[in-house]
Queue: 3 jobs
Job 1
Amino acid sequence: MLDSKKIADLLPFSLLAALILYEIYKGLISILESFNPRILVFVVPTIVIFILFRAGLLRIFSSKRIDDGFKPGEFLLTRDKILIQTKGSRILVKALELTSPQNSELELKFSQIAEVLAHMGINSSLAVMCFPKKHREDWIDFKGDVSDEEGFEVFQRRTILLWVEVKENESLKMAKSMLDRAESTIKSKLGDEWDIEVFKGSNLKELSKTLLFRLQIALFNLDFHGETPKSLVDSIYLEIGRRSNGSLVKLSLRDLCHHITILGRTGSGKTTTSKFLVSKIWELGVPVLIFDYESEYRDLVLTLGGKVISPSLKDDIVAVNVLGDLNDVSEAKLDEIAEQFTIILDLTPPQTYLLLKALVHLSEQAREGDSPTLVDLYEEIASLKAVGEAEQESKRALLRKFYPLIKGEARRVLCEENFPKIEDLMSDLISIELRDIATESVREIFVFTILRRIYHYNKTKGRTSGIRHITVLEEAERILPKIADLTGLTIGDRMVSELRKYGEGIIVISQSPSNLSPHIIRNASTKIIHALGSTQDVSFIHSLLGPSLKAVGEISHQIHYLKTGECLVALRNSAELSRVRIKPEYIPPELEEEDLRYLISTAPKFYHKRKKEVLKSRLP
């Protein structure tokens, strides 16, 4: 019941309401006295028909818009919420903007708020975006340890996105009430220190156009089929630099599928160019594997949230069993392994024959037991019966070449298996550091074994018109060398040539192109040429580019005057050879050893795989 104080407060309003009703009553009486009742016969049906017609149209249009014409990836704006249609469900989103006169620690509080919201069945995310200053009350002062009396001021916009997923056959009423309760919860948790405003009307529409919201929609609609679709391969471009006239030079993802060569002497900027490409490719969500001979990519990879595989960064030995797949191998794989050793160990044809013979015997035995190692292969070669003195000498020479591979460093690196699974290797940003593998032949066998695994993994995934993965191969002349007396293609040439059919792009980097397989350079769709160190290299590049490119005769003149970071670029399906200045947008700081160890120790806590279909958010 109402107490006397409340009745006294309501009395003036009650009297005012009664007075208004009385005036309305007098007006209606005067109208009805002069009113012709026959008009009602026409007016009432007209009003009823209009109301029914309008309600029917609204039902038709709203039904068509939400159900029939509302496709996955589309969204509708309401007064203060956004409805997103996904495959099999709908997602209702509410956005809150938070401002504070001080640089309050919102991030710390939000982790607690997010946990509460999760218990309520509500998803949430916090975004902090910085802009040039707009309004003085939105400035936030930052002062670091460095003495700076004035500091510097920026405008920050903190946005919390709240969303609830609803099945197509369920009502949205519950989701609406949940989001409204979430708003109240956030206000109570943050207190009066923060001003919280709901995005509405034009502000909500503006938010829906931002990259942040497009990314959210892309994440809602992922089907994660493990590769970048063809439609995006042809429509997404990487801007790598500018020509002298200021025009942009772009690479499409299609160019990445058809491989890239980056050539240049030491200090010409080729590794910086490669780092720039890696950062932009990873930004698009395409996984990258780097073979790093000089630990030059470590800072970049860790800063971007990737992983570094290196014996110097952990106590475990990084090792691959070269013959780990011999218990499930075809004749073609046996030929690949034999050719791999033939190139790296410089075997003669009789030695290759004996090696292949030993591999066949060993693979037959391996099908019944554990995977063999190089030690088993050495023993198998030793047990072969040689016919004649010439074959006996070939056998002895083959054993002499294999003996170093089963001792010391080689035995630790090539005869055990302590390495990520190929599925994990192909889904992240990963750098494999090779500097601590001292023996050159061991390093080459190690790299070639991983390349073989990449090749066969892609073959099992099948052909695709999209892109699945990028491999960066530094000092490629070591693994893909030019062999003077070889008329056909090496196993490396064939693998690189075929990988494009399976969505694997290769970035080949070399400081000595005259020692690199000419097939690799000739068949790369994009050639990035920095300053070269020898006339032999310049002449070699000149012969490979051929007369189809305009101004190719100027290479010998220009290439000696290229500054660090400048290059000549030959693009796919283009007759132009452009002089380009590559300016990386972001060069990570060099990290101290203590910083590196900290990043590696915390990586599992913050690392999150980027999904390939996030590329959808880059489309207009």
Note: The mean pLDDT is 75.
Job 2
Amino acid sequence: MEYEILVAEALLDSLLRGLAVDFVAVALRSQAQDGSIELLQCSPDLNASEIEAGLKQATLGNSRYAEKLDIGDLRLPLFITPLDHDGVSGELVIGACRNGFPTEIERRIISHAVLQARAGFKKRPGTLLGDSRRTAAREVILTEVIASIPGLAWSAGPDGSAQYFNDHYLRYVGHDAASLRGTGWTATVHPDDLNGLVAAWIEMLSSGQGGEAEARLRRFDGEYRWFLFRTNPLVDSSGAVVRWYGLNVDIEERKRAAVALQSSEIHLRQLTETIPQALWSATPDGAIRYLNKKGLDFMGVEASDLTDGFWWAEGLHPDQVAGIIRTWQHSVATGEPYNVEVLYRRRVDEDYRWVDVRALPMFDDDGNILMWYGSLIDIHDRKVAQEEMASSERRLQLIIDTIPGMVWSALPNGGGNFANRNFRTYLGLSMDEAREWGWASAVHPEDLPELTATWQEMAETKEPGECEARLRRFDGEYRWFICRGNPLVDASGGVEWFGINVDIHDWKIAQDDLREAQVKLAHMTRVMGMAQLTAAIAHELSQPLSGILVNASAGLHMLSSEPPQLESARETVRRTIRDANRASEVTERIRALYSKSDPVVETVDLNAIAQEVIGFAHSDLRKNGVRLTTRFAADLPLVRGDRVQLQQVIFNFIKNGVEAMNGTVGRSKDMEIATVREDADRVRLSVKDAGPVFDSAMSEKLFSPFFTTKSNGMGVGLSVSRAIVESHDGHLWAEANDPHGATFAFSIPVREGGDPRMEPHASK
């Protein structure tokens, strides 16, 4: 049975090195050779002789074992499995001084190791020569066993340089063996754990003794999990280390459980010592034997009243008595934690209040319940508040889902976090699809770049933003939305985005209709002003036409004299041509003013435009007794704009001023037209009148369509004027003078080059 011994020793080595156990033993019996083998390996902390004696008392070798083995003061749970093969019967016995042994993963490791050992028994070589051959064979068997273990197994040379990793190890870390050999495996260890692990490994190498250490190992998907690194050396007959074998066991759940247990113990200790709540304890059969003062006061009993039975059930709500007693009896019988929320009558006022009652059992080493420890916490106010909060949350959810808009929230990286029902219904997406950027596919391709750029700017600046874009409805139709988002920034600088997408499709269409109406309104305003301009036009044309007639008559007279006065006639003809050109210009300006032609954007002098309008309005000013003064800036820069439109604005200002002063009595009707350079980039023109006291509260309403203070006005002139000024990127306003009268003014930017951005309605 020499080869069986090698296989058994390799099996013991692999399991003692790979599992956190205290000893491993094998008993083999050969029917053919009428012999038996008993092998034992144990941790350095235990005495092998005591274990052997204990195993004999447990009738090792007769297939009859106790469930636990007593070694001194220790009680070790045992795990036994058969190790039979052709002609040989046997058992494998493993002991570990810890609760929960063996775990599911340990059962799998043991099962695979036993299967590999049985396979090893069948590979019996013809002859085994010498210790070196024996050691080599044992190493081969041990390597085969380790390779089959469903854990992270590895081996290293005497100097600690990694040489071999089983398939489980390679699959877990997602690397090939070549990249892990030597010290390459350290790249998969958590940086915070690497120094401690390397130090422990160096200490093992220096001492030649196996050991263990804990560290986090990175899985192929990037997640780190806690592992127990266990190592043991394989030595030759001289005691020199031939190879190191190791097994990394996943202890992530154990670590978490340890942390949870520690937290629970701390919490229970703090609860017992400081919490102002009812605390109690009960015997293993469920009889309450202790209540702290808070509990006694709440239940209205004395310590002497704590007897056997269910006396405490008298305070329960009648509808809950049977169910609560049944639940408590179940916990007492099974040892399961007890936790119920019940309505209990408070003795001081006889009111039923919601209380949270919970208890945990304390076990001895054999798993028997020693005592129950529990608490009784008044949660009535919290319960009521939770019900109100749940109702409020349901109402809030209903409000969010019924808001006539697409409400959403997003994470800092833009990933979706929430989308209300309207959002999901419109796009035809589920909540998961909305969270996974599914909404981006619904954005019109022409609008996606601007929407993406706006979002990136918002994410970088953590400032609110908005953008208009077309979103595809579930039926394929695109509609215009305005998408707005606001950040909610916490104290640490973290941000969550909340926003709403509002359907503005119909509004966009209405805006187009409005622009068309404004075009017609602007033209109508010019036509309506024809009566006021008629006199000014007649006066403006009468002078050049009269000059033409006089000069023509004088020219005929000069040509008919003897001799003809040719030089004087030539001068007369020149004056005639001059007056004709002047009349032509006036006619052209009038035609442009009343036509619907597109705006002519050019570089113009605002002072010159104002002078031309004064010429138009001269007769009207004189007829109404208005004394006009001008104050034009000499350094006024040129602007880019439509001459006719700017003339219309100035004419409206003058006309309003004249009409405002019609009822002025006892003071002169003064009007001043002024230009000034506001700053390097803007110029301003103002018309100041001496009319009645101006109400500043009406300044904004004056420029609204169809608002008027005149009995015969329609309220369109100033609204059109504002549209014209705004189309020139300008601003228009009115303000009160001291002590009376008003000033109407506008400012527009200086244009060094390029056309102003003018909306179609502003040019009509």
Note: The chain has a mean pLDDT of 80.
Job 3
Amino acid sequence: MPSLRTSRLLQAQSFDAISQFLREGMADEATREMRDSLSALSQQIEALVQARRKRVDVAALIPLGRALADSARAHQRLMNGLGTPWQSLYEFAAYQRDLRRLRDALDAWLLVLEQHSRRERRVFQQFEQRAWRTLGGALLLIDMYEQSSTWPQQAQPVRAPSWWQRLRAWLG
């Protein structure tokens, strides 16, 4: 049975709800910075999505998009600076790839937005889908990191005794 906190995440219907979930999490020092950065990124995505849905003027959308692009780059730099425990997780590489794809989708949308292209709606939908996927990957990464920090340390495999050690043991 999922915990109350997990079930609240499953009911999240907006980027802002994910941001709130991240702020409420009890994180150790290793995850606090990651959660804060991801929360800020999620809030900016929500602001951009809401502005776009309200059909705000293009002149107002472009600065929001550029600010989000700057934040995504800063978040990418934070990710690159995380230590080996993070980078050794399989999910880390997948999240890095998703983050790059999000930035590419945002850049593509900003380009068609500035050109007043008819494709703007479709490209924006692709960006929004990419944003959901990226934030989902980030939540998975955080969860896997937090779970891995509670795993018992695996014992080093015992090496087979050398012939010299076997001889000494046999001789007594």
Note: The chain has a mean pLDDT of 84.
